[in-house]
Amino acid sequence: xxxxxxxxxxxxxxxxxxxxxxxxxxxxxxxxxxxxxxxxxxxxxxxxxxxxxxxxxxxxxxxxxxxxxxxxxxxxxxxxxxxxxxxxxxxxxxxxxxxxxxxxxxxxxxxxxxxxxxxxxxxxxxxxxxxxxxxxxxxxxxxxxxxxx
Length: 149
Hints:
Elements: H1 2-7, H2 12-21, H3 53-77, H4 80-105, H5 110-144
Helix pairs in contact: 3-4, 4-5
C-alpha cells in the first residue's frame, strides 16, 4: 500500500522539489539570472521583451516635467493637499518609467523591476480609490435628485 503512494503523484511537492534541485534543469528567475544569456533569455523575463527606450524616455521626461510644474504651481497657489497628491502620483509615474528605462539595457535587472512594480502597485491602489470616490459621488448625486415618476 505505501509503495503505491511513493510511486504515484499523490505527493507532488517532494517530486517537484527534487526536480528543481537537480543540476540538469535550470529555471531562469531574478534570483538566478543577472544578464541575458543563452540560459536566461529575454523571453523568460516578466515582460518578455526589451522595454522601448525612446517611448519610456519620453514618458519619464513628460511626468518629470509635470511633477516640477505641479509642485511650482501648487506652492504658488498654496493648495497643499492637491499639490501633495498630484506630486506623489506624478513621482510614481516618473519612477515607473525610470525603472523601465533601466530594464532596457538589462531586462534581468532586479532592482529596476522592483522599482517599476512598486510604483505600478501604488498607482493601481490610487486608481481604485479614485474609482471608489467617483462611484460614491455619483450615488450621492443620484440620491439627491428626485427620480420619482
